[in-house]
Amino acid sequence: MALTDQLTSRRSFLALGAASAAMTSFGSPARAARVATKARIVIIGAGAAGTALVNRLVDRLDGAQITIIDPRAEHYYQPGLSLVAAGLKPASYTVSQTADWLPQGITLVSEYAAAIDPVAKTVGTSGGQTLAYDFLIVAPGLVLDHDAIEGFSLDMVGTNGIGALYAGPEYAAKTWTAAQKFTQEGGIGLMTRPETEMKCAGAPLKHAFLLEDIASRSGARGKFEIHYTAPQTSLFGVPIVAEKVRMLFGERGIASHFGQTLKAIDPGRKLATFTKSSTDPVTGTAVTADVEMPYDYLHVIPPQRAPDVIRQSGLSWADKWTDQGWVECDMKTLRHLRYPEIFALGDVAGVPKGKTAASVKWMVPVVEDHLVAMIEGREGTQVYDGYTSCPLITRVGRAMLVEFDYHNNLVPSFPGLIAPLEELWISWLMKEVALKATYNAMLRGKA
Amino acid sequence: MQDLTFGTLIAVFEEIFGRGLFWAMVVAAALITLGYVYVLVRDRAMSMRKFLLAQLAMPVGAVAAVVFVQVMTDSHLRDIGGPVDVIVLLGVAVMGAVGAAILVYTLQSLFFRKAVEPNLR
């Protein structure tokens, strides 16, 4: 009988837990009444940021005319690309339809934003439409500048040992074709990252860790070496994480090369040319020199910049990231510093860090708050403090759940339970199974 | 993560196993639980003989649950990296063990009722 009692109590405990969870989600006090407004809101971009925001705005606003501009029919779940490029998920894992995520009662314009006039408050589209706005959300994402790498083009991906997982689901899958050959046959694996700001600075590290792990359990065991090159002077922007990764690279035998920016490739001879920056020990001046490195597998991550339309419309910072053109905005409210009715959201925002889906999840409620407040004629109160999360995969089956903010502080979601700098199975489970569900909930405006 | 709601939790499980498999498992678990409650109410007693066999099924259930989770998530025992991982692993094993015990007990009670059994109460 004791067992039955235990089962009953256990089950009632679980039921209680489920019920209280349900209470938190459904039983919370009803949101303030929807704000009635005739405001014209234009959102450029229906990626993670634009979609999450529009789904929240339709719940908050009554009567607003919301238009979202995006020509791409497919939505990419970009956090999954690392898994696709390691053969752990198919390309289809990351692909859904943009229109399926959008709410009813808004207008989707399937064209590019071709011009923004922040003074006249209009957006011109590639199809020739001119959309007037009262409020503008700039969330077009960023552009991968593959042409900046001499000798490289996307049609090379998957052949001759060349990978480029950032370029999209199809290219991530092709990247695995090239990477898999390396994990079976061995040789020299060469990892790169750009000098510019980039999406998810953890992804190049994950790719290196995953290939090392898979190769050391596959045909290439004992027959490969991996070199990680970076234009920066450390392995990660957050010092405490950089140190941990440095130690892991040491244990795993992955060599690091700092101050090296990929400049050109010669696929025929399998040679990559880097611009190496260093300081002259005698004169103290900066010197650059070209360095050639051979490879059997090369992972290319190109420089990343704001789309041309942003840079040409005068929305970019004039004195920061001048070669990249990120939107000039307040780092806590994401509001444009010169045009208060414009907000930047997602990758295009000119703030330190923050080019991840996890950042978007925390940015969206802040922009929503300030936008709705502005419509109501008051000041918003929410603040974005640079939260970014990176489930830094270190092996197939293990990851470190690294979360940090503008100040390089670690901000763990589960302090005392999930240690941020430990390689844990539970962190892997979160990355592999829980993250996409959370992401999807975010797109629907529910998380 | 900012908040973890019941809806998110369901979505997470759908993501882990696929929507069809997840709800099939929920239905199976609900049916087995109902069956268990039914036989308990019907018999108004727990048969210790059936319970003994059910107990023997527990280790099998524990191992099966762990293997199932690992296969679904591309992971292995070598990935256990810290105390919290051991807790998760044990949690999965306990759920598998209890599930197997309930399943075996219920099946015996439903389909092998006529077996002669001394009353050990």
Notes on the structure:
- The complex is a heterodimer of chains A (447) and B (121).
- In chain A, the strands form 8 sheets. Chain A has a 5-stranded parallel β-sheet with strand order 7-4-2-11-22, with helices on one face. A 5-stranded parallel β-sheet of chain A has the order 13-20-14-15-16.
- Chain A is 30% helix and 24% strand.
- Among the domains of chain A are: 35-71 and 110-142 and 306-376, FAD/NAD(P)-binding domain (3-Layer(bba) Sandwich), CATH 3.50.50.60; 146-303, FAD/NAD(P)-binding domain (3-Layer(bba) Sandwich).
- In chain A, strand 23 (388-395) and strand 24 (398-404) form a beta hairpin.
- The longest helix of chain A has 25 residues, at 2-26.
- Chain A is an alpha/beta fold.
- Chain B has helices at residues 6-17, 19-43, 48-72, 83-111.
- In chain B, helix 1 crosses helix 2 (19-43), helix 2 packs across helix 4 and helix 3 packs across helix 4 (83-111).
- Chain B is mostly helical.
- Chain B has one domain (6-111).
- The model of chain B has no long low-confidence stretch (mean pLDDT 86).
- Helices cover 75% and strands 0% of the residues of chain B.
- Chain B contains 4 helices and no strands.
- Chain A binds chain B through residues 1, 3-4, 7, 10, 18, 21-22, 24-26, 88, 361-362, 395-398, 413, 417-419, 422-426, 428-429, 432-434, 436-438, 440-441, 446-447, and chain B through 1-9, 11-12, 14-16, 40, 46, 51, 72-76, 78-82, 84-85, 88-89, 98, 102.
What topology emerges from the helices and strands here?
The complex is a heterodimer of chains A (447) and B (121).
Chain A: H1 2-26, E1 35-36, E2 40-44, H2 48-60, E3 61-62, E4 65-69, E5 74-76, H3 81-84, E6 95-97, H4 98-101, E7 107-109, E8 113-117, E9 122-125, E10 130-132, E11 135-138, E12 143-144, E13 162-163, H5 169-185, E14 187-191, H6 203-215, E15 224-230, H7 239-252, E16 254-258, E17 260-266, E18 271-279, E19 286-294, E20 297-299, E21 304-305, H8 308-312, E22 342-344, H9 357-376, E23 388-395, E24 398-404, H10 425-443
Parallel strand pairs in A: 1-3, 2-4, 2-11, 4-7, 11-22, 13-20, 14-15, 14-20, 15-16
Antiparallel strand pairs in A: 5-6, 8-9, 9-10, 12-21, 17-18, 18-19, 23-24
Helix pairs in contact in A: 2-9, 5-6
Chain B: H1 6-17, H2 19-43, H3 48-72, H4 83-111
Helix pairs in contact in B: 1-2, 2-4, 3-4
